[in-house]
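cache lookup: miss for this entity combination. No prior model stored, computing from scratch. Input as submitted by user K.M.:
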Amino acid sequence: AQSVTQLGSHVSVSEGALVLLRCNYSSSVPPYLFWYVQYPNQGLQLLLKYTTGATLVKGINGFEAEFKKSETSFHLTKPSAHMSDAAEYFCAVSDMNNAGNMLTFGGGTRLMVKP
Amino acid sequence: KAGVTQTPRYLIKTRGQQVTLSCSPISGHRSVSWYQQTPGQGLQFLFEYFSETQRNKGNFPGRFSGRQFSNSRSEMNVSTLELGDSALYLCASSLAAGDRTQYFGPGTRLLVL
């Protein structure tokens, strides 16, 4: 079974500082990888995804993530945090051994941005 | 293009009752998945429907069921509600069998008293 680990349930950064949210996965086959963001009382919004090809993927709102197969990681970064980035972030994987659509999520990381 | 819609957005039920939640996918999307989100367990996969057939099922009791209609709209039903069923239920749709990108709706918040 696949699993996703997000290190740090809470991360606090100052406005303008680098954002780094960590995600590691376990899978026998490189999966498809996703980052979603959730604002209070809302659903999940897709930030970015890795399927195949370039290992550095860019998403919305200035976020990007790098797929590192050797480290089984897919960390999310943003060079400069903005107050509006405060939200909960979820890393998810899709099992390539499963023909259907089933995402396994990490526990989430709540990002706080200090002025 | 309209996003995934879910109705109702909020629901209050009492233990023992049953509830039906509805999800309309993005136009053209044929796969619909359901997830339960709770503070304790996080986001957990319930089931996925594609072309009116359940293709995947998560580890939930049989009280949780779903279906998909020919227009790809989906419903999930929870019978004999328990307090622990209080959660945000999220529906997600994706384009086709090979496309694993899921787009989520706003969710239905269910409170069981």
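stored under new cache key. The longest strand of chain B covers residues 42-50.
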